[in-house]
Recover the amino acids of this structure.
């Protein structure tokens, strides 16, 4: 197993005072708390920080850890010194964290929960939260997502091993950014026959090349020609459900919004697609095209800056 | 070892979900008293007058779970937790606005020659 450098995890010196350790822990806990942090690996970092703190904040555990010596480097292959299995029964730590601590931690301090090995109370397993990224099409149509998870498993001997697990999860149509999906009983296993925890999936919708999403609404910038804007036209517009015909009213301008009711993400009620018009001018590369523009300039007497007073 | 499970259905925590006080305490691993304090603080806003009539929607469930974790892990008091949650909500909605605006600006830039 890998040696863990708890001092490095908390970013403190080996001779740090208990106050310095506490301050470092508090600062990192705020930074990497999964409910606050946007760091991609916040959950794992937060666990590491807690494990380091569990050892270093307690002078007895810190002394036992220090007794391993200061020449170890993080990640180095570690074998517990002979006989260390005997002393770990003296250590106490909270049941909530213990099951999630590393094998390295367990090799020094054991996994006995709470008040020692005699505690056989049933405990519900931990809830877990996993972020999943889906694309807008998947949010629109719904689908099945395969998830690979590392799940801690507690054997009859109380030892924790890790097990890879694959889940096929249904993504309901109409799920939106930031929503959580609760999978009852799919979290960490319980202790002593306790119920397993729940697994929460937090949905993140990945960027799309033409659409943006705002809740259940879908936004699209739709390019139109000047004459379509001026005279009105029926044009094709993409939606998540396929191409539809959209009526552009005469006299439309760039930035104007048209609403395609019910063409957003499904739901009750479904979202809309908001089409933002964007007038695109044709290039004037040929003599014929230039002539058209010059003709317009001559006949229309149009000052687009009239509102600016110039 | 890998085990593949059949397709699992989840429940989306949104306005379509409603839970009672006792269901909420189970979902966030908290006591009824702790939830009542969160309601008194205005941190949670259930529908219904008396605790036995309270109904929490999926958003309130998410908020309650977050509140419980923040209180426990960062040793925040109730007022501090409420403030943190409000600021996190605001941060989230600002990030959303930014994402939408960035997308629109990016699209415009691509259209320039």
């Amino acid at each position: 197993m890998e040696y863990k450098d708890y001092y490095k995890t908390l970013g403190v010196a080996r001779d740090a005072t208990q106050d310095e350790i506490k301050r470092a822990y508090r600062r990192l806990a705020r930074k990497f708390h999964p409910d606050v942090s946007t760091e991609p690996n916040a959950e794992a970092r937060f666990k590491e920080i807690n494990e380091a703190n569990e050892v270093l904040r307690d002078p007895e555990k810190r002394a036992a850890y220090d007794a391993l010596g200061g020449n170890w480097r993080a990640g180095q292959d570690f074998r517990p010194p002979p006989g260390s299995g005997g002393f770990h029964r003296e250590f106490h730590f909270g049941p909530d964290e213990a099951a999630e601590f590393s094998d390295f931690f367990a090799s020094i301090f054991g996994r006995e929960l709470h008040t020692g090995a005699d505690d056989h109370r049933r405990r519900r397993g931990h809830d877990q939260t996993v972020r999943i990224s889906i694309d807008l099409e998947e949010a629109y149509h719904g689908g099945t997502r395969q998830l690979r998870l590392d799940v801690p498993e507690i054997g009859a001997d109380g030892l924790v091993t890790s097990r890879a697990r694959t889940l096929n999860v249904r993504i309901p149509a109409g799920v939106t950014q930031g929503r959580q999906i609760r999978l009852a009983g799919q979290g960490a296993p319980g202790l002593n026959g306790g119920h397993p925890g729940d697994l929460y999936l937090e949905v993140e919708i990945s960027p799309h090349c033409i659409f943006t999403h705002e809740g259940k609404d879908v936004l699209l910038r739709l390019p139109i020609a000047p004459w379509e804007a001026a005279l009105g036209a029926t044009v094709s517009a993409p939606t998540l459900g396929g191409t539809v015909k959209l009526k552009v009213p005469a006299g439309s301008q760039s930035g104007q919004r048209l609403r395609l009711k019910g063409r957003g993400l499904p739901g009750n009620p479904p979202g809309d697609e908001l089409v933002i018009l964007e007038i695109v001018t044709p290039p004037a590369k040929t003599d014929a095209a230039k002539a058209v523009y010059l003709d317009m300039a001559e006949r229309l007497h149009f000052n687009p800056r009239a509102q600016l007073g110039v | 070892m890998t085990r593949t499970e059949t397709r699992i259905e989840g429940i989306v925590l949104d306005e379509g979900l409603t839970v009672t006080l006792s269901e909420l305490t189970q979902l966030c691993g908290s006591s009824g008293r702790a939830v009542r304090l969160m309601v008194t603080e205005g941190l949670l806003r259930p529908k219904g007058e008396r605790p036995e009539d309270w109904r929490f929607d999926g958003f309130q469930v998410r908020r309650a779970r977050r509140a419980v974790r923040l209180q426990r892990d960062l040793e925040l008091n109730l007022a501090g937790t409420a403030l943190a949650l409000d600021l996190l909500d605001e941060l989230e909605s600002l990030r959303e606005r930014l994402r939408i605006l960035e997308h629109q600006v990016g699209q415009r830039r691509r259209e320039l020659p």
Notes: DSSP finds ten helices and eleven strands in chain A.
